[in-house]
Amino acid sequence: MDNTPCFEATTGKMRVVVQTFWLDDQSEPDEHRYVWAYRVRIENHGDTAVQLLRRSWRIVDGQGRIERVEGEGVVGEQPLIDAAASFEYMSGAALETPTGFMGGQYHMLRPASREHFDISIPVFSLDSPHHSTILH
């Protein structure tokens, strides 16, 4: 991933790295619509393949409102990630406030042993240029 700030979480031998990108061309601040893209890379540092089955997100906007999103796979896939390999995808989020954050979990499976386990998605911030920062 390039020089954009990264947010990382490691669970066992699984590492999740997230980068966010403000989408000015899709945002409409006058209409309270703020849009970001985010790139996720899921790295398998283990010695067996794993499969991503489901996702659970917790999205919090700048007013503290919480939205929970759950679903099968990511971007229409339930990827199988081989040992010492990674899977990367892009997605997006829209908020009614110029700032917020999100994080969650991926619900995984080790096909060889049928073991189910969860890995953390790091909490990452969604900050727009329309958000004024207050220094304490």
Automatic annotation (TrEMBL):
InterPro entries, sorted: ApaG_domain (IPR007474), ApaG_sf (IPR036767), Uncharacterised_ApaG (IPR023065)
Top-level taxon in the UniProt lineage: Bacteria
PROSITE patterns: APAG (PS51087)
Residue ranges annotated for the ApaG domain, each copy included: 8-133
UniProt-listed HAMAP family: ApaG (MF_00791)
Record's protein name: Protein ApaG
